[in-house]
């Protein structure tokens, strides 16, 4: 086949009227027809062989688990109470984290939740961390994802440039 119009006409002719097929049968038919229409195969048997070889190759998973450093993030109330092991003052990170939360909440018209956070500041570090966790459960998914990113950054923080 020489051009795209010829290819489309060939594919349409080869697939037309084929109903009641399973997903696998449709995929196989499409593969075979595309090999024939593109000229990669001259016969149906040759196309079937090419498609069998393609099908037997394992596909690389697009959604294979990546090395996601945020996968190990825990709730803030638990995290703030655990020893850091590296001398980092975890409660000290709550102030900037709370400010990040409040900035997002105020810019997304969730000011009442920002006010709740502000009120929790006086309750101490565990109360504040607990409120951070509660707020995440009260916001839309896109805002929640952003707040969880903040948690991730706080929990992965290792200190200044020299690691302290």
Architecture overview:
This protein is mostly helical. The chain has two domains: 4-56, no CATH class; 69-156, no CATH class. The chain has helices at 4-15, 23-38, 44-56, 76-81, 94-107, 111-120, 125-136, 141-156.
Protein traits:
single chain; mainly alpha; 8 helices; elongated
Summarize, please:
This protein has 164 residues and is mostly helical.
Summarize the topology.
Layout: H1 4-15, H2 23-38, H3 44-56, H4 76-81, H5 94-107, H6 111-120, H7 125-136, H8 141-156
Helix pairs in contact: 1-2, 2-3, 5-6, 5-8, 6-7
- Domain count: 2
Number of strands: 0
The average pLDDT value, as a whole number, equals 83
| CA-CA gap between termini | 66 Å
Overall 3D form:
elongated
Q: Whole-number radius of gyration? A: 28 Å
Strand content: under 5%
Structural class: mainly alpha
Number of helices: 8
Helical coverage, percent range: 55-70%
Sketch the topology as an H/E string, one letter per element.
HHHHHHHH
Low-confidence stretches: none
Largest sheet: none
